[in-house]
Amino acid sequence: MSTPISGTHFGLTAGDYHATIASVGASLRTLEFDGRPLVVPFDADEVRPAFRGATLAPWPNRVVDGRYTFEGEEQQLPLTEPNRGHALHGLAAWLDFDAIDRSASSVTFAATIQAQAGYPHRVDVTVAFSLDESGLHTTVTGTNTGPTRAPWGTGPHPYLVAGEGRVDDWTLTLPADDVLAVTEDRLIPTVLTDVTSAEGGSWDFRTARRIGDTFIDHAFTGLQRTADGVATVRLTAPEGTGVELAWGEDCPWVQVHTADQPIPELNRLGLAVEPMTCPPDAYNSGTDLIVLEPGDSASASWTIRGI
After folding, report:
1. In terms of Cα–Cα distance, which of 280, 283, 260 is closest to 50?
2. 3 state SS for the chain
3. Residues whose CB is less than 8 angstroms from the CB of residue 248 and which lie 6 or more positions away in sequence, other chains included
4. What pLDDT score does 58 carry?
5. CA–CA separation, 297 and 294 (whole Å)
6. Which of 63, 67, 68, 94 is 20 to 30 Å from 43 at the Cα level?
7. pLDDT of amino acid 24
8. What pTM value is reported for the model?
9. Burial of 137 (0-12, 13-18, 19+ CB in 10 A)
10. How many CA within 13 A on the CB side of residue 263?
11. pLDDT per residue as tens digits for the range 33-85
């Protein structure tokens, strides 16, 4: 049998959960709880659309103009978001990862980001998926196997599905005090502001409310956490079903996007919720940017669960 275009697939099952992971981009292709989807899926023989479920590394979100300076050296990355002129979502999303460990409810992938123009560093990436009765747990680890210090950031890119309907119908709880404003045309970060004043409070979802026609494609921080450091985004449908994404202090940011698309049948199908170790354009701002010394590693984890 030929390998599907999205890579080799691994089915995971535990309790009422079932997930399918595709090796290209170590991507979460499907996730179901009690027979209903928790993420927008994509077909096995489909080129993964809109980074659905991809692992983002060695940076999440975008590097403005694909240009940055690190250790005194100017770098130019390929512009993988050509309509806005940025380098988008890292270098790992199209790598075909190898499965290095496997069970009925787990799989661990590994790939290497080789030193290249714009990112002259070698970093090994492992992505561990584990399914149990409390949901799907993911941990991404970057290890600098090269001779020079390397900038690093990571995050996931699932489009969450609460139940029937679309984004407009669902209720969002987003425990974030601050939002990073961006330019309208190119989404270039400008200033961090509190959610009560930005756009008249349009992005203040600290108290659960229906999303409606609100457009969101912004990074949030100032996250409200439990005593053990966990932040949780909650999305529910009118019929009472829902989904949560929770993560720890290794991700001080979260990008949320209402998945607006010009094609009606694709428009606002799911809500992208992307915990991130750093904000957009961290390679230039330096904000929360992780720098891996040769031989060092950094990890980040998150969990998706049904309601």
Report:
1. 260
2. CCCCCCCCEEEEEECCEEEEEECECCEEEEEEECCEECECCCCCCCCCHHHCCCEEECCCCEEHHHEEEECCEEEECCCCECCCCEEECECCCCCECEEEEEECCEEEEEEEECCECCECCCEEEEEEEEEECCEEEEEEEEEECCCCCEEECCEECCEECCCCCCHHHCEEECCEEEEEEECCCCCCEEEEEECCCHHHHCCCCCCCEECCCCCCEEEEEEECCCCCCCEEEEEECCCCCEEEEEECCCCCEEEEECCCCCCHHHCCCCEEEEEECCCCCHHHHCCCCEEECCCCEEEEEEEEEEC
3. 229, 230, 231, 300, 301
4. 99
5. 9
6. 63
7. 98
8. 0.97
9. middle
10. 3
11. 999 999 999 999 999 999 999 999 999 999 999 999 999 999 999 999 999 99
Residue 252 tokens, joined = 């001080």
Tokens encoding 281: 């354009």
Residue 265: the pLDDT is 87
CA distance 251 to 223: 10
Residue 1 has pLDDT above 80, yes or no: no
